[in-house]
């Protein structure tokens, strides 16, 4: 995708071949900055502190993190330490574990002298595979948007959090059908949930859509149900950090409420995901670990000062009483019964064990509950 007309990805290897470069997403939308990662520790911090976020991008960053570790020490002990360190950064997104297991399986049989080069090659391949899967998701989702298109009005799509190209290596998951529809000349308009407490919708999805020229409107998180009641939402498309074998979907906190509102108003509710986001080992969403993040994300907001001596400076502002505690569960689980369909790189699956296995029959032996 593009930033001010220039092709850009949220992660890429540097030209000198000694590091990876990421977009610092904590500084968007007010400041665009690239950060160089040269060590395992820097890669782990980038994931933990959400300089990179989104399940597919977390997986790609972790893969490059293994490479950075093995450039320094390629022993079995170093490989184990790197995988353990990276796995501990974020507990919910399954792509993280998937990427680390893939890297371990690729590198363990190799002699130490060959591991760093192999790690770099495999990390790059994981990134390119993600791009291809997300583009395919867009092709399948495009058909859904085409069916809703009507002369004289745009297709109004509601999304939650950021499942765009900033959350992947390119195209995004939920946004890939939107970008492809826009590029094909189909009028679309996106309702962008702000997505408290970190405001990934307001800060990231809106920034992406604005850069690509896609019409959109940022709304408060609780406005989606009202817009559905008024007939202003034709469909919802969200991403997911982990989908279980039965089609339950774990996504950013607030997704479940949007799915309930969509069901009550007969609005199609789709989830877009590449296959590495499917956790075949879990029978249902009840077993997904839910990340509990720092309460400060709830008690404070960050914003750019518009007036006064500090104009243009980005500062934190407390919005809750000093005496009030805050809880910050980062994700919730939407039951498969509330999902219209799962948009994958192989097609649109019914949100059920058999629906997923119809597209991924090779996973039958791994699917929990079989």
UniProtKB/TrEMBL annotation:
The active site is at residue 241. Its EC number is 5.3.1.23. InterPro entries: IF-2B-related, IF-M1Pi, IF_2B-like_C, Initiation_fac_2B_a/b/d, M1Pi_N, NagB/RpiA_transferase-like. Substrate binds at residues 53-55, 90, 200, 251-252. GO terms for molecular function: S-methyl-5-thioribose-1-phosphate isomerase activity. Pathway: Amino-acid biosynthesis; L-methionine biosynthesis via salvage pathway; L-methionine from S-methyl-5-thio-alpha-D-ribose 1-phosphate: step 1/6. It comes from the Bacteria. The record marks 161 as: Transition state stabilizer. It catalyses: 5-(methylsulfanyl)-alpha-D-ribose 1-phosphate = 5-(methylsulfanyl)-D-ribulose 1-phosphate; 5-deoxy-alpha-D-ribose 1-phosphate = 5-deoxy-D-ribulose 1-phosphate. One of its GO terms (biological process) is L-methionine salvage from methylthioadenosine. Pfam families: IF-2B. Keywords: Amino-acid biosynthesis, Isomerase, Methionine biosynthesis. Gene3D superfamilies: translation initiation factor eif-2b, domain 1, Translation initiation factor eif-2b, domain 2. Catalyzes the interconversion of methylthioribose-1-phosphate (MTR-1-P) into methylthioribulose-1-phosphate (MTRu-1-P). Also catalyzes the interconversion of 5-deoxyribose 1-phosphate and 5-deoxyribulose 1-phosphate. Part of a bifunctional DHAP-shunt salvage pathway for SAM by-products. Belongs to the EIF-2B alpha/beta/delta subunits family. MtnA subfamily. PANTHER family: METHYLTHIORIBOSE-1-PHOSPHATE ISOMERASE. This is Methylthioribose-1-phosphate isomerase. The lineage of its organism: Bacteria, Pseudomonadati, Pseudomonadota, Alphaproteobacteria, Rhodospirillales.
């Amino acid at each position: 995708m593009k930033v001010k007309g220039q092709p850009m990805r949220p992660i890429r290897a540097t030209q000198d071949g000694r590091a990876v470069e990421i977009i610092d997403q904590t500084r968007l939308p007010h400041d665009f900055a690239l950060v160089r990662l040269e060590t395992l520790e820097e890669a782990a911090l980038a994931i933990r502190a959400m300089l990179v976020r989104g399940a597919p991008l977390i997986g790609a960053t972790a893969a490059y993190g293994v490479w950075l570790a093995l450039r320094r020490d390629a022993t079995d002990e170093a490989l184990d330490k790197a995988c353990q360190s990276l796995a501990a950064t974020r507990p919910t997104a399954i792509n993280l574990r998937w990427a680390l297991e893939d890297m371990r399986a690729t590198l363990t049989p190799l002699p130490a002298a060959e591991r760093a080069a192999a790690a770099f090659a495999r990390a790059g391949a994981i990134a390119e595979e993600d791009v291809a899967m997300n583009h395919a998701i867009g092709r399948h989702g495009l058909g859904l948007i085409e069916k809703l298109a009507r002369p004289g009005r745009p297709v109004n799509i509601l999304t939650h959090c950021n499942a765009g190209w900033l959350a992947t290596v390119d195209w995004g998951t939920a946004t890939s059908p939107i970008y492809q529809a826009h590029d094909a000349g189909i009028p679309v308009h996106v309702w962008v949930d702000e997505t408290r407490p970190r405001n990934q919708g307001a800060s990231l999805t809106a920034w992406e859509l604005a850069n690509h020229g896609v019409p959109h409107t940022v709304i408060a998180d609780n406005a989606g149900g009202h817009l559905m009641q008024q007939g202003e939402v034709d469909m919802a498309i969200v991403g997911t950090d982990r989908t279980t074998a039965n089609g339950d979907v774990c996504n950013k906190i607030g997704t479940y409420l949007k799915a309930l509102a969509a069901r009550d108003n007969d609005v199609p509710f789709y989830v877009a995901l590449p296959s590495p986001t499917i956790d075949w080992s879990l029978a249902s969403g009840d077993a997904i670990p839910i990340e509990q993040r720092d309460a400060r994300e709830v008690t404070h907001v960050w914003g750019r000062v518009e007036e006064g001596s500090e104009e243009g400076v980005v500062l934190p502002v407390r919005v809750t009483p000093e005496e009030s505690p805050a809880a910050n569960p980062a994700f919730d689980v939407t039951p498969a019964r509330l999902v219209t369909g799962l948009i994958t790189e192989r097609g649109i699956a019914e949100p059920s064990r058999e629906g997923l296995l119809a597209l991924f029959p090779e996973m039958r032996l791994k699917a929990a509950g079989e």
